[in-house]
Amino acid sequence: MGRTVIAEDLLQDRIQEILKTSGKGIITGLLVGQAHGQKREDYVVHLIRTPKIEEDTQQAGKKKKKGSATRSESLDSQWIAEHAKQVQRMLPGGLNILGIFVVLPSEENRNIQSQLIQVLYTVHKTLLKTPWQKAVKTEVDEEEQHRIVLQICSVTKKFTTKTFNVVDPRDSGTVAEWKFQSVVSQWPLLHTAVTVNINIPVLRGEATKSLHQQLDTAIGPFCECIMQGLCTFNGVLRKGDQPLLAQEPPQSKKGHGKGKGRHKESKTSHQPTSDGPEMFCVQILSKATNNKSKEVMVTECGGTVFIRGLIQARAYVHSKATVAQASQAIREDVVRSLTARCELLAEDVLEVKDFTADQEEMDITPRRVFGRLHDTHLSVCDYMFEDEGVEDCTARCQELLDITLAPDDVEIDAERLPEPEELEKPMCELMGDEEEEETDGEDVVNAQASWEKWKKSYIGTMIGAGIAVVVSGLFMYLEN
Amino acid sequence: MAAKIVHMLPVVKKQVKQHVKVDDPGLLGFLLGIPSTKTGIPTVVGLGALVGSDGTALQQEAEDTLLHLPAGIRLAGVAYTSEKPPTPDYVSTQCLRFVQAGLKDVFVTNEWIIQHIQVDPTTENEGDVQLSKLFLYDSTSGSAAPVDVREVEDSSLLSTTLLLRLQGQLSLEFEYNPGEDDDMFKAIEEGFRNLQEKIATPATIFHLTDSDVLLRQHETVDATLLPLSYHDPCHRLLQFVARSGTEELPKKGGNKDSKARSNTQDMLSMQLLFQQTGLEAMAMLPSCVPIIHSEKRNFHNVCLPVSINVTAYIHRDDPVSRVPQLMVEAVSRQLRGMEACLNMHFQGGQFCVPAAYHFLAPGMPHLLTAVYPSSLPDDTLEWYRKDLHQRFSLPTDRPLLRRQNAYVFPEDQHGDIFLTNPHEGLPPSGVKGDVTVVQGRYRYHHYMQDRMNDSGWGCAYRSLQTICSWYNLQGYTDRTAPTHREIQQALVDVGDKPVTFVGSRKWIGSIEVSTCLNQLLGVTSRIMFVSSGADLGGKSRELALHFQTQGTPIMIGGGVLAHTILGVDFSDQTGQIKFLILDPHYEGGEDLSVIQGKGWCGWKSVDFWDKTTFYNLCLPQRPEII
Question: What is the DSSP string of B7-65?
Fold first, then answer.
C-alpha cells in the first residue's frame, strides 16, 4: 500500500496561487514537512518555488554558473539541490525537505518524469553531504527513506503523487494518496537555549586549513554529545515511546507553557484562542565528553578554536509524535543551527579576507531570527549578520523560502549580539583565584560558594542584556 | 541532659587493637564515621591508622585516608593511647593539641569522637582495648564529655545504609611542552580545579539508572517533578528504579538466592550528566550569539580520559537531597586522588591514566577505593598497597587490593561462564562439627568445558584449573586457569614429561599438579600421602588446619580419580568427619541446582574414598605477598 501525504489545509490557496502564475512554463519547487515516523504518512506544510536562476541571487546559491542554457523543459537538478541546501538551514527542527513538486501543462511529458527522479536523487544526495546531516546521522542507516514527487498539471489541475525510497536507487516509485487536512495548528512547539562552550585544539597540520574545515572539526564532538543526550520536557524525563502529548493535560507545569503559547498565538487571528498548541521547554542532558578512548592522547597543535555563546533552538512535531521523535527534532535543530552558522560564517569570511594569515581571529556568528510560516504558528528562521538589516532577512525569506514577511513580522530579539566586553578572548578561567579554599572535608561549602557565584553571574547577564523571551520564560519555570 | 550516643561496629575494636603499642603511646589514627541525619547518631565504622613517618603532617594523613574512602564515610574523630586515665579534662587538653595541629579543617563537624585508650607500659598486657573510653569533644567550646557507646553488628551497615554508585566520563585537557614541567603541573592543577568547579555547578545532574529520576545538588531546582521530594528518605528512590535484571538472577543463584538477598546491600546506581541548556548551563558564559575565537600557537595538547567511578554510603533515612551532595563530594575526592596519582607517576614526558578501583576486603564492613596508574602493573605498586593495608588494618600477608581483587558490583556480574563458589548455599553436612572451607572465591572447572572433550582423562587437569582460578580470583596472579595444553607444556618444560606429552590424553596426578603450580604460578604445595582412603578420616585436623591457615582448594588423586576438596566438617566430640567435595567429572551445563542436587558439589562421608587404593593430596600454599 502506498503512503498518504497529508497537506496542511492552508496550502490549498497557495497551490491555487502558484497555478495561476504558472502560465505555460514549468515551475519546480520543494516540499517541506514532516514524516509521521510510525505510520506510512507524511505531512506537508509548505511548498517553495525554486528561485529563478537568472536573478542575481546575492546570498543564495552564489557560485552558480550562470551561463548554462536552461531550456524551459529541462530541470536543473544542481540548482534545485543547491536551493534545498539553503532552505534546509532555514527550517526549524522537525521540518525537513520531503520532496519536490513540479507544475507543468501536460502530464504526458515522459522526459520530465525521469528528470524529476533525477532531481529527487540529486537533492537527496546533496543534503546527505551537508555538515548538518553528517552531524545528526544516526548509527544505523535507515533501510527506507521516502521522498515525495508531486506533479500538478497546470491544465487539468490534477495531482499525481508518488513516493520513492531514495535509499534504493532502483526504486521505481509508488503512487501515494494526497489529501488536504488541517493539522499544524495542534503541533506542539519545543524550545530550548543551548549553551555552547567549545574549546578545541587544532592539530598542527590543520591550522592552515580553511575556517570552514576547522570549525567543522571543532563542533563535531559537541554535536555528537548533543545528539546522544537525553531530553527533559518541562522538566520531566520521559520514556521515548510515549506520545509527547498526553490525552489529559499534565497538571502543574503546563500552565506556564500554555500561558506563553497563548501570548504567541495572539497575533494569529484564526487560531482558537482557548486552546493553542502546547509548548515544551526542553533541557538537553549529556555526557561531558564523548571520548571513549582509554588512552592519553598527546597531539601537536597549531592553535585553538573557542566557540562560546547561546543558541536558541525550536522544533515542531506532529501531534501524535512520540517523546523520542520530539527529542530527536529539538536536538537536530541545535545541531542544525550551529552548523548553519558556522557554514555561513565560513562562507562570509572567505569572501572578506584571508583567514589563515592572522595569529588571532575573532568572529561573531550571525544571529538567528525567526519568522512565521504563513498563517501558522510554525517558525522558519534566517541568520542575520551584524552588518545586515531586517530587510536583508525578509528578502532572503522571500527568495529562498518563498515567504513574504513584513519587517515587523521578523522576530529579531530571540538572540542577541554580544556587548563589547563579551568579545574578549576567553582566558583559561581563573575564577576561583581570589577565594582559594582548602577543603579536605565535605565539599558542600565549596559547592554552595560556586552556586552563589553562578547566581551572581547569571543576574549579571540578566541586567547586562535584554534577554530573549524564551529565556525569561525558562526563568519563570525554574522559580516555580 | 541525656548522654549522647555513638554506634560502633565491633570491627573497630579489632582494628584499633592492631595498632596499639604499649610502649609508645600516641595518636593511632582517625575514627571513620557515617552520620545519620535523622537520628543524629553517628556510626563508627573503622579506623584510618596513621602510616606516615613521624614528620608527616596530620592534614596529609587525613587526606590520604579520605581519598581511599567512599563519600559518606567521614573522619569523625581520633583514637589515641595514653598512660593517663581517661578523664574529660585530660581528653580536652589532648584535643587542644589536635586543634593546634590543624585538625579543625579536617573534621566536618565540630563534634569529634575521641577514643581514649589507656595503656600501662609496665605490664606485658598488650594494650587491652577494653580499657578504652569514648568522648565527644566540642572543638568550639573546647570541652569533652563521655559518650554512650552502643555496639552494633558489622552487618548492620548493610541494612541501615544504601550504597550509592556514580559513573561518568570526563576529560582533562592541558598543555604540555617538553621541558616545561612546572607549567604543566600548574596546568594540571588548574584543569582539575575546573573539573571540581564544573561538578559543583547546578548543570551537573545525577541520573538514577533505569529510572526517570534526575537529581541535582541544589534542591531549589527540583527537576524530578515526580512524586518524590528532596526531603523524603532516600530509600524511596529504590521504588523508582525499574528492576529488569533481577528476574534472571535466581536461576543462577539456586537456593542460595533468598539467603543472599537479605545479605546484599541495596544500591542506587547513577550516571553523571551535564545540562547543556537553560540557565543552569549558562554560568559564566556569554549569553549572546556564539562568538568564535581562534588563535595560532604551537603547543602540545594532552587529552586525558578521566573515568569517574565513585561510591558513597548514605543512611536509608537520610533525605534525598543528601544523595547529590554526597555524589559531588565523592567525585571531588576522586578527582583529588587522580590528580595525586597523575602527578606521582608522571615520568619522562609520559602520562598515566588514573583509574579507580573499589575493594571489599574480607572482614571489612565497607568498600575502599584506590586510584592506580594504568601504565604500572600491580607488582610495582606494592609499596603503595603496603601503606593502604596498614592504614586500614588489613592483613599484610595476602593480596587484597590488587586490581584482580577489585569488587565486582552485582549489576556488573555477567559474562562469567564458570560458576563461582558452587558450594555456597549447600545444606549443612549433618556432622555439626567445626566447618572449615576454602577462603575466598574459586571457579568450578569440570569435564567438557572450553570445547575440550576430556571426559575420562582430564579430571586432575580440571582440579588444577580450579586451584589456579582461586589464585587468580584472590589476586595472586593475573593469569587465568591454564588450558590442558599449557599444563602439559609446563610439565615438558620442567623436564618431567617427554615432548610427546603435549596434546596427548594422558592423566596427571597430585605430584604433577604441584609441579605445574610451581612452574606456572610459583606456588609451592605440600603433598600428603595416605595408604588407604579409609585413613583420610585421621587427617581431619590437618585438613582443617589447612583450610584455616591456607584456605586453598586441595587436589586429591587416587586410583583413576581426581577430586577437589573444598572443606571439612569435623566434630571433636564424635570424631565424625565429612568432606566438601567438588567433582571435576561433571559433564553437564553450569546449572547450580543440578550440581548441588546431584551431589557434584556436596558433603561426602569417609566412605566416599576407596579403601583399597592410596591417595596423594596436593595442598597448595599461599605465598606471602600483598
Answer: EE-HHHHHHHHHH--TTS-SEEEEEEEE--TTT---EEEEEEE--S-TTS-HHHHHHHH
